[in-house]
Amino acid sequence: MSKLSQISEHEKPSIIRAKLPTMIIVNPRAKIGGRKISWSPSTLCFVLDEDQVTHRLWITNRCDRTIFFHCCGLWNDTVRLGASWCCFPRTRIWLPPGLRAPLYVRATPRDIISPIPDGVTFMQIAAAHLRDNVTGYFSIPIKAKFLKYIPPPVAEGE
Questions:
Q1: How far apart are CA 154 and CA 46, in angstroms?
Q2: What is the pLDDT of residue 135?
Q3: Superkingdom of the source (predicted)?
Q4: 3-state secondary structure at position 78
Q5: What's the confidence (pLDDT) of residue 32?
Q6: How many Cα atoms sit within 13 Å of 77 on the Cβ side?
Q7: Can you tell me the distance from the alpha carbon of 41 to that of 57, in angstroms, rounded to the nearest whole number?
Q8: Which residue has better confidence, 59 or 1?
Q9: Which domains are present in the chain?
Q10: Is the bond into 96 cis (omega within 30 degrees of 0)?
Q11: C-alpha of 104 from chain center
Q12: DSSP 8-state assignment for residue 98
């Protein structure tokens, strides 16, 4: 039984985040070592109120070979309830050994009151040695806190 199926449905997203893998290998013959790709900051944290917020993420290639990166989008749709999200650039990024490249994540809060106080999602990145041969995926955690959240009123008898 996998670790993900053992997680209770009522556990908080932050606990689930710690149990998800950060690197999934697709082709074991041409694998990209998980410790040879690094990013900074390790977790993107958004505090959203009225204005649009953009964060920059640096991905560093510490492999001996050139790597192509491509942002595949977000994994968890819970954070989409409070804001709309955009990851860019949407094109493939060519990254030679020893260099770093920026990725940007933009969050635009919804005009209405947020139905959730906070959320955790992951930005999924595909990595490849050749242009069209994806050899691995890794995910970068994103935490969001929505200041427009108003807790629902509690009835007097409860």
A1: 28
A2: 82
A3: Eukaryota
A4: helix
A5: 64
A6: 0
A7: 6
A8: 59
A9: 23-146 (2.60.40.10)
A10: no
A11: 11
A12: T
Residues 6+ apart with CB under 8 A from 111: none
Phi-psi region of 75 (alpha: psi -120 to 50; beta: other; left: phi over 0): alpha
Residue 53 in this model has a pLDDT that exceeds 60: yes
* Whole-prediction pTM: 0.74
Are 53 and 44 in contact by the 8 Å Cβ rule? The answer is no
pLDDT of residue 18: 40
Three-class secondary structure of residue 75 per DSSP: coil
Longest dimension (CA), the chain: 65
| 117-152 pLDDT, tens digit each | 999 999 999 888 876 778 888 889 999 999 999 888
Place of tokens 């039984």: 1
CA–CA distance, 90 with 78 (Å, rounded to integer) = 22
- When pLDDT is averaged across residues 107-124 and rounded to a whole number, the result is 91
CA distances from 40 to 33, 91, 102 (A): 17, 20, 10
Q: Give me 122's structure tokens.
A: 């992951």
Q: Name the token pair of 79.
A: 């954070």
Do the Cβ atoms of 109 and 148 come closer than 8 Å? yes
